Fold:
Amino acid sequence: MIEQNALLLLTGLPFGAAAIASTLPRQARNAEAWLSGAVMAAGVVILALLFPLIATGEVLRAQIEWLPSLGLNLDLRLDGLAWLMLLLVFGIGLLVVIYARYYMAPTDPVPRFYALLLAFSGAMAGILISGNIIGLVVFWELTSVVSFLLIGYWQRSQAARDGARMALTVTASGGFCLLAAMLMLGQIVGSYDLDTVLASGDVIRAHPLYLPVLILFLIGAFTKSAQFPFHFWLPNAMAAPTPVSAYLHSATMVKAGVFLLVRFSPALGQTPAWFWIVAGAGMTTLVIGAMIALWRNDLKGLLAYSTISHLGLITALVGIGSELAIIAAIFHILNHALFKASLFMAAGIIDHETGTRDMRRLSGLFGPMPRTGILAIVAAASMAGVPLANGFLSKEMFFAEAADWHNGSALDNALPYIAVFASVFSVAYSLRFIMSVFFGPPATDLPRTPHEPPSWMRRPVEALVLLCLLVGIFPGLAARWVLDVAAVAVLGDRTPYYSLALWHGWNTPLKMSLVALVAGLAVYALGARRFSGEAEAPPLLDRIRGQRIFDALMLRLGWKWPRVLHRAMGSDALQPQLRLIVVLTWLAAAFVLWGATRLVPRQVFEGVNPVFALLWAVGATCALGAAWQAKYHRFAALVMLGGAGLATCLTFAWFSAPDLAVTQLLVEILTTVLLLLGLRWLPRRVEKIAEDVLLPARLRRGRDAVLAAACGTGVAALAFAVMSTAPGLSIGDWFRRNAYSEGGGTNAVNVILVDFRAFDTFGEITVLTIVALTCFALLRRFRPAPESIALPEQQRPVPAAGPEDGTSPTPHDVLMAVPSVIMQWMFPLSIMLAAYLFFRGHDLPGGGFAGGVAFAIGLLLQYLATNVRWLESRITIRPTTWMGIGLLIAAGTGIGGFLFGYPFLTASARYVDVPLVGPVPAATAMVFDLGVFATVVGASVLIQIAIAHQSLRSARLRAREATDTAAAALHREAR
Amino acid sequence: MELILSLAIGVLVGSGVWLILRPRSFQVIIGLCLLSYGVNLFIFGMGRLVSGAAPIMPKGGFVDPAAYADPVPQALVLTAIVISFATTALFLVVIMASRGLTGTDHVNGKERDQ
Structure:
């Protein structure tokens, strides 16, 4: 149990800390560093405590169920390999946090930096200990996203933005391929559990889909680990702050790809395809990376290509795939992380203290920075593979594997020569790094005077370099124990004996190393001048630019092809789009329903009620009339729309749905008022458009009429087909049986809304609130058309009816004199009606929706009876407060369930005896309904008022226009 | 009764579809309202038509579900009524804003080329 929680902590703690880190104030550099450092240190401590268990070969597990029926759970598993990688993540993370505290400038927004760094370590830990292959991909994508944000940390720099975008495009596309591969793997194996997948190597390799799976999987791994031909994003990612480059882009994230290769080598490896693709890509990357690195003038650029090259080395080892090669790959993951992180930090120190990373300007820094110089020299020696440094050991193992016989293919025979060839360049660029920066004449044109960095900026480098030497000199003591557990985790019983020592005798690998060292020295000595030219790649390789291909592809995918497609198929007009939707929907429905004639008709022609027939004769006429008149006679169309609505409402009442009838009637009133308010802002449409009678317009209308008739016929036929068959089993039966016993209300509809399916209702009132706020927000920027600004006829004073000083009555005043008095008197009654509807809702037709709308109508009537100014000086209505309180009540009732240990929105119901009144239903669902009531009131009122207030705004516009005209007149007079 | 209601739904949907394909925004909003009537009645009809059997349950005792109308379509339609009011309001506001911005009430934001 404790181990399980430890696993959860390893991924959860960094994310939690990231949330805290992101909220700290901008200046809190020390607090941020302490927080992040503490989390990293905690990770290291947890790992240390778990080691005794891991060392016995045990695999620790933890599981949180999410969708067990789909096999989707948060499965965590920790074995030796993951343990070793985690140690790198948290250990180097700790050093990077310390380093970054001194590296980042006081003006940088550090909360974002540390929060992202922490989130990254959490996501990385997730990749490493995920026991479910889908979960693994999720964390995988998370690291891509965080890496994107970190590369683009200095948002103002164009290079940072471009580099971030490129890294995200490449790695996220790879992640997508990886997801596809994992889904296929899951289908092949029948489980998404990592252990099951790893144990099913034979099934996977024998499956016809093996090759597609392998290729998709490798695209995922290669993009992440910057393998040829996807390597080009990594140098561009160097626009990130140097701590990020040291952490993500050399020590940990890019290792996720090779980690994945090592992890899945038992499941996917051991085939010729694996050998050719993986070893081939690895060797190509190794050579290309090493060669280009030698030509780079930027310190970080050199290190980036060197990283690519070393990742290629690891990939090649996994591609070779023998047991010893896998061990060497794991060992080199560790060694490379140690020396490359320290080199990146050293480069960051040089950049920080001198102001430049250009090797053509840097020179002779050993004088002013001797300690940094020594550290960098040791680390670079490790990178070059000089004996006594850790890089030498894993390189020897690589040479041994390259020289060994595996399958006798052409690639296998060429391996040792390619390995030595690449190594020559690796020695040469290491030499160039050291010689051009630290030796030679003192530099003269540096932006800053170089000196040693703050001592704590150097400590992390010192720690890493010390580890490099320890592993290099005493490998058995310093590295054997972790390497053993990691190897057993991958190879299991196949783990061979291997020797980890500095001296293996005068053997082939040592000879290869010596050749590489001597040749490397020679290459550097002979060509030192040529490397620092303008061309930052060797003569032939500068032609092949992955980046150029990427840019061209992006241009086509993101700009040219979409535009062509849009021009060919797109339309910015609404009508064709809607027409397409209607046609496609009709076809889809026809496709599904085609041939579904196995319907058993009931008696249908019996008992046709003539009143009902008459009702719909009127209703249908209204609908057709509205359709006919909506263009030129809007008001008439609106009235007829109301007629169709009333027929609908009566139908609900007829067929046992009183709740619907009440709500429909009330909403009908609101909708009509709303549309009436909107009518004023639409343009006049009295003139007939001349070409309306021409053939094209007639054809358009004819086509739409056919479409409309087809839709109407289809829906009518479908409705008739369903309604004329006997109902089957319905979940409604359960609701009907349990409405009272479980929900404590007799009105089954209301109980469903506020109890059984309260969560849906909660979502719905939230939507309602959002819509109301959107209406309000949209109208704040509303500009009425000029012709709509003038007062409507009904509001203009009629001079003949009274004095001409503007106080004469308007037609509105005259017509509305009596109704407005009645409406004012109705206000208390309408509130009572609303309360009545609300309270009876749980047992009888009514409820929060109907009550809320009734209340809103009551208020609305007051607006109609008087006018906005009169009313609002007397009643203060705060619709947003109503909505807010309503949502809070609804959510609060739901959360109340937690207090008693029930899920969200669990209701309880009982009757309470109130003196004089008798038993009163007191269900918590009614409190929820109160929330619904308040939200509906707020939303309806807000929408109506927002539209009604537009008249006030146009009044202000009129006033401004009047003053403008007066001012212009004055101006003319003055002239 | 089923036949009449089906025909009514057909007329409502047909008129609605005709209107949402029209060029003027007011026609579209009326069309959407008619369409929502039709769809609401359609969903309601899926619970079959019964008269005089409102789903008001007795307090306790054995309940025969067949004696009452199906409450599930009713609950669905009840929320649909409120939501269609909200969308109508939103659409109206969008129409008003678009009219103010483009100077026309054509749904495409510009008059058909003359």
